[in-house]
């Protein structure tokens, strides 16, 4: 703690503070530059986030064939069969007559396994049940063949009926069920359908084409002579051809058919492009593109107020909160004004969407499907949709719209519009990251960060220098106080000496 001005009567602290304020002016300018560059860095990153979001939207919609193959499928008997498109790029039509639905094989024990009141969570040995150490379950696989190796169910002294059931249901090809009312066990193959070849198994083996249980079954499972139903294939007539499938849901030529029940007559179905859904995706893409270029154009054209510099801590202390907000609104303005990276990106995006696509059979320009560039130069290249024309292009041939946006030729001129756009966005984002980094980047990895690091070093050195200057001022004023005190003492001595004569 310093006590000053005792001899001179001066407010030394205030005087030194004012002197230091003058010394701090160069430091305040450096801090203003640092603050402005931090705002600029943050605005670059915000722009990069918008580029990233639009890039993902473009990739996830305009470059995916699934966007354009959405179809509306009608059926004359939707309660009997349902049809939906999976990967067909063309429309389809047909007739189906369902003779028989696919069924899973089942097997049930003829004898009681446990008492009806048995606790399934108790150990089997405590229930006085004689059990084998293991048994194997073989069942039909998804490809229609029998799992020859099967799954081995192991039983030890800690096993319970519930643990055995859980093991079977989780790991084997069947679902097992214990019925406490009858005390019997039932098995159902997880996959439906029938197996052409049957096993000729002997010994303690329960043999059924779709479910085979091998092991010591006499005492535990008690399924010897089990009641069983064979699995069945679905049998149907498709456009005059009688055929079979292992399951009731299957694909034909890129569309999925689900059989629900046997039919008495032919069921007709047909498809057409789901124009509304495809149109919705294209319109959303155009809307987001327009929002992006509007935002980026506003950034590079935003006015810069050079008279409004970032406020220092001392300046903020003398201002109201609303005044600070209004000041900083102008101080932050124009951080990306005339930025070359963003300006170049806007130009490249416009070029990517306006150029023709080579090698496609249908429409090769946006204008041919009803999307044009606005005639209003103030809108800076926004896209305008003629919905009637676009809807017709989608309805006539959605695949031509897909090719226009997503074609992937050997040359840039042969690549689809969305593919070119994604390449431009990726290149722009790379340049922005090199300049402003990402939220997790350290300052030494991008150009603005290295400049900010330089400012931080300057500030640190300047603050050390100010500390030395302030110490020097206090020493100088202290020396002055000491001189004044000596002069006062001498004056008092002389006055006393002359007065004494």
UniProtKB/TrEMBL annotation:
<comment type="subunit">
    <text>Homopentamer.</text>
</comment>
<dbReference type="Pfam" id="PF07195">
    <property type="entry name" value="FliD_C"/>
</dbReference>
<feature type="domain" description="Flagellar hook-associated protein 2 N-terminal">
    <location>
        <begin position="8"/>
        <end position="104"/>
    </location>
</feature>
<dbReference type="GO" id="GO:0071973">
    <property type="term" value="P:bacterial-type flagellum-dependent cell motility"/>
</dbReference>
<comment type="similarity">
    <text>Belongs to the FliD family.</text>
</comment>
<protein>
    <recommendedName>
        <fullName>Flagellar hook-associated protein 2</fullName>
    </recommendedName>
</protein>
<keyword id="KW-0964">Secreted</keyword>
<dbReference type="GO" id="GO:0009421">
    <property type="term" value="C:bacterial-type flagellum filament cap"/>
</dbReference>
<keyword id="KW-0975">Bacterial flagellum</keyword>
<dbReference type="GO" id="GO:0007155">
    <property type="term" value="P:cell adhesion"/>
</dbReference>
<dbReference type="Pfam" id="PF02465">
    <property type="entry name" value="FliD_N"/>
</dbReference>
<dbReference type="InterPro" id="IPR003481">
    <property type="entry name" value="FliD_N"/>
</dbReference>
<feature type="domain" description="Flagellar hook-associated protein 2 C-terminal">
    <location>
        <begin position="231"/>
        <end position="488"/>
    </location>
</feature>
<comment type="function">
    <text>Required for morphogenesis and for the elongation of the flagellar filament by facilitating polymerization of the flagellin monomers at the tip of growing filament. Forms a capping structure, which prevents flagellin subunits (transported through the central channel of the flagellum) from leaking out without polymerization at the distal end.</text>
</comment>
<keyword id="KW-0175">Coiled coil</keyword>
<keyword id="KW-0969">Cilium</keyword>
<keyword id="KW-0966">Cell projection</keyword>
<dbReference type="InterPro" id="IPR010809">
    <property type="entry name" value="FliD_C"/>
</dbReference>
<dbReference type="InterPro" id="IPR040026">
    <property type="entry name" value="FliD"/>
</dbReference>
<keyword id="KW-0282">Flagellum</keyword>
<dbReference type="GO" id="GO:0005576">
    <property type="term" value="C:extracellular region"/>
</dbReference>
<dbReference type="GO" id="GO:0009424">
    <property type="term" value="C:bacterial-type flagellum hook"/>
</dbReference>
